[in-house]
Design goal:
Elements lengths: L1 E4 L5 E4 L1 H11 L4 E7 L4 E7 L3 H14 L13 H10 L2 E7 L2 E2 L5 E7 L5 E10 L3
Antiparallel strand pairs: 1-8, 2-7, 3-5, 3-8, 4-7, 5-6
């Protein structure tokens, strides 16, 4: 498990280096790492990590499509966060070869906060390749 602390209500945090560090520390070589968020107002996604404007564009577009206030019925007042999380998804699976995440040149793994700031956890499960 890794812990994430968000600073804003809506935020995408690049956690690629944290996942890579976990893989190195555990000595994982070949297999698959499964990432899962146990929160109903946070998500995971893989997207471009070279241009920070991509993250900005994603958050702005999600806010336009799913505004924070829109006559929702949920009593907690955070329905937009639940909707965004359902669209983005709660898990990602990445192949690991020779101890390295097999991401594309411009890809990064992002933790998506939609109801922050908060302290969150991402669960990690290693599946070793068959020998």
């Amino acid at each position: 498990m890794i812990e994430i602390t968000s600073q804003h209500r809506d935020q995408m945090i690049n956690i690629t280096s944290l996942i890579a560090k976990h893989i190195r520390e555990q000595g994982y070589i070949d297999g698959v790492i499964v990432l899962f968020v146990r929160h109903t107002t946070a998500a995971l996604t893989i997207n471009e990590n070279a241009d920070p404007d991509v993250v900005t564009d994603l958050l702005v577009t999600l806010d336009k499509k799913i505004p924070w206030s829109d006559n929702y019925h949920h009593a907690e007042g955070n329905s937009a966060a639940h909707l965004k999380t359902s669209l983005m998804g709660s898990s990602e699976t990445v192949i690991v070869r020779n101890g390295v995440l097999q991401l594309g040149t411009w890809q990064g793994i992002y933790f998506c906060e939609f109801d922050g700031p908060r302290r969150r956890q991402v669960d990690l499960q290693w599946l070793a390749a068959a020998v």
